[in-house]
Amino acid sequence: PEQKAPRACEIKKAAGVSIATLAYKIPCATDPDFAPVYMLSTILAGGFSSRLQKALVDRGYAAEIAHMTPATFDPVIVSFTATAADGVKPEKLLKIMRAEIAKLVKSGVETVEVARARERILSQMAEERDGIWNEIRTVSESLAAGDWTLGYAFEERVKKIKRTDMDRVARKYFTPRSETTGILTDTTETL
Q1: In this predicted model, what pLDDT tens digit does every residue of 59-74 receive, in sequence order?
Q2: What span, in angstroms and rounded, lies between the C-alpha atoms of 105 and 99?
Q3: With CB atoms counted within 10 Å of each terminal CB, which end of the chain scores lower, N or C?
Q4: How many angstroms separate the CA atoms of 188 and 191, rounded?
Q5: DSSP assignment, residue 49?
Q6: CA dist., res. 191 & res. 186, Å (int)
Q7: Residue 47: left (phi > 0), alpha (psi -120 to 50), or beta?
Q8: How many CA atoms lie within 13 A of 135 on its CB side?
C-alpha cells in the first residue's frame, strides 16, 4: 500500500553502538525505475567518494555508512545505515542523511557521480559473475526477482541511464512522506 506519512522506530538498549537507518520505498527489480534508483543509492553511499561517506564518515560523525538496494520480485526499500562515531547521537546522523538526500533531490546528480557510480556497479557485476557458479547464482537471483534475464538486462540498463533519469526517480521515491527511519540508541554505560 501507498505510504502516506513518514514512519519511525526507535530501540534503546545496551548494544555497544548506536545506529541510524533511513529507508525509502522503491519499485521491484523489473521496474524501469529500479536501475536509476540503484545508481542513486551508489552515488549516495557506495564507496569512499559517495555523498554520505563524505558527509558522515569523513567528517567524523559516523564510523561507517552502508546501503542496501535489493533486487526483488516485489517493491522493497532502499536503506542507508550509519554507525555512529563515539559521542554522536543517531538523530544527528539522520539529520545529515536527510539533508544530503534533500540536496540530491533538489539539485540533481553530477555527471562525474553518474560515471563513477556506473563504473562501480559494472565492475561489481563483472566480479559477481566471475565463474560458472556465480553465473548460475545470477540467473537464479534474476529468476527469483521475476525475469531470468534481469542480471544481464540490468547491466544494459545501467549503461544507458542518464542524469535526467536519476533526477526524476530521486524526486519520485526519495520523499519525506515515503521515509522510514530506524534508530538504535546504545544505553551502555561507560566507566
Answers
A1: 999 999 999 999 999 9
A2: 10
A3: C
A4: 10
A5: T
A6: 14
A7: left
A8: 3
Mean pLDDT of 121-149: 89
CA angle centred on 42, ends 28 and 10, rounded to 5°: 75
Mean pLDDT of the chain: 93
pTM for the model stands at 0.91
Closest C-alpha to 82, from 60, 106, 65, 58? 65
Dihedral of CA 32/36/41/47: which sign? positive
Cell of 122: 559494472
Distance in angstroms (rounded) separating the CA atoms of residues 19 and 186: 8
Q: Which of 100, 105, 111 is nearest to 67 (CA)?
A: 100
CA atoms within 13 A on the CB side of 80: 31
C-alpha distances in Å from residue 181, one per residue of 115, 165, 176? 30, 26, 10
Residue type, 11: I
- DSSP β-bridge partners for residue 13: 186
Q: How far is 176 from 24, CA to CA, in rounded Å?
A: 9
Planar angle of CA 159, 75, 34, nearest 5 degrees: 10
CA distances from 6 to 124, 143, 178 (A): 32, 32, 6
Note the pLDDT tens digit of each residue in 92-127: 999 999 999 999 999 999 999 999 999 999 998 888
pLDDT, one tens digit per residue, over 37-67 is 999 999 999 999 999 999 999 999 999 999 9
